[in-house]
Amino acid sequence: LKLKDMSARGFGLGLASHGIGTARAMSRNETAGVFAALALGLNGIATAILVPLLFKLLNLF
Fold first, then answer.
1. Which domain holds residue 30?
2. How many CA atoms, within 13 angstroms, populate the side-chain half-sphere of residue 11?
3. Long-range pairs for 52-58 at CB < 8 Å and ≥24 separation?
4. How many domains, the chain?
5. Which among 2, 5, 6, 10 is positioned nearest to 42, based on CA atoms?
6. Collapsed DSSP state (helix, strand, coil) of residue 51
7. C-alpha distances in Å from residue 5, one per residue of 33, 52, 53
8. What pTM does this model have?
9. Does 1 reside within a domain?
10. What is the CA radius of gyration of the chain?
């Protein structure tokens, strides 16, 4: 994908490549870095909330 929007590029990097992608985005463009950090944080919060619910739903633990 040839994304020209730095916010979309940063958000994708933050979701897909976590800390390394966030650092890379921050070094290239400040807007991309901010959105990468936001995506990284939101992904962590969503995972912490949704995974226990899925385990309860599937009766795994």
1. 6-57
2. 7
3. none
4. 1
5. 10
6. helix
7. 12, 34, 34
8. 0.84
9. no
10. 14
> Cα–Cα distance between 45 and 51 in angstroms, integer?
10
Let me know how long the chain is: 61
Classify residue 39: in a domain, yes or no.
yes
| Closest C-alpha to 5, from 31, 28, 23, 24 | 31
Per-residue pLDDT of the chain (61 residues; tens, 9 = 90+): 688 999 999 999 999 998 999 999 999 999 999 999 999 999 999 999 999 999 999 987 6
Beta strands in the chain (DSSP E): none
The first and second tokens of residue 55, run together, are 């385990």
